[in-house]
Amino acid sequence: MAMDANCKIAKELMSGAVDGDLSAEESSYFGNHIERCEICRNEFELERLTKLYFKSKVTRLDPPKDLLEKIRSRLNYEDTLRMPRERIHRSAPRAFLWPAVGIAVVVVLTVIAIFTKKPGSVVSESPEKIPPASEVQTRDAFALSANDFRNLLIGEFRPQIKTQVVGDVIGFIKQNAGYSIPLPATPNPDWIVGSVTTFEKKKIVKVAYKLGTHYIYLYAFPTPLAHSKAISLPRECIGTLDKREWYWKHNLSGALQVAWMYKDVVCVVTSNLDKRDLATYLKAPRGSD
Fold this sequence. Notes:
By secondary structure, the chain is an alpha+beta fold. It has ten helices and seven strands. It is 48% helix and 17% strand.
């Protein structure tokens, strides 16, 4: 779908839509546009999820009072040193003072940034700077699935098969992975894509569905990878899977995630569907023989 003049207007309104700052007229225009335009709808969904993710990851912490006092004292000291020189060289250009002022400002902002950044958090200025899953240094199955889901939304997921027929994907998985997994039974998907990769000499299956404005992403791997800790799972999730029960959670981006065991395979799904609809699709699977 090509972008047009309406898309340009929608892009100008997108930031306000994410923050909820649009007027009634702007909100109506934007809502009508993304209902018709898949490109803008996906970009809006990505920006919304990204904001939720980083809002939950970054927490403001007040810097220590003694640090602020040291910074103020240092700046005051620099001012006292500079004042005599300014009196002596009143006729000289003052442009040379700006680099020193700029450096002082950068130092202050850098120190404050260190104390306002939550340890272990990631700061990103735009969705495009979110690293793809292949670059994310993590072994957590839920994080890997969530990163692939974001890549799917921005068109960075590279499938080996694309079809509308579930049976085609089932055959592809059996042939290339050597095992079967239960695929969601959804009515008339826009498309289904899939790929099989190798990790630690084991086959990992990745399957995604597009259902209008909703997506289902399935990440499956043999249990030996979890046992060897090549791919990790939360402790509470392991306990739930050992009971052959389903483990549900919402990730930091607000997407719904669920994991379950099928024979000797762990399946992890990330989706922007609600729990009722997702459970309905997953509990009526295809290819689970």
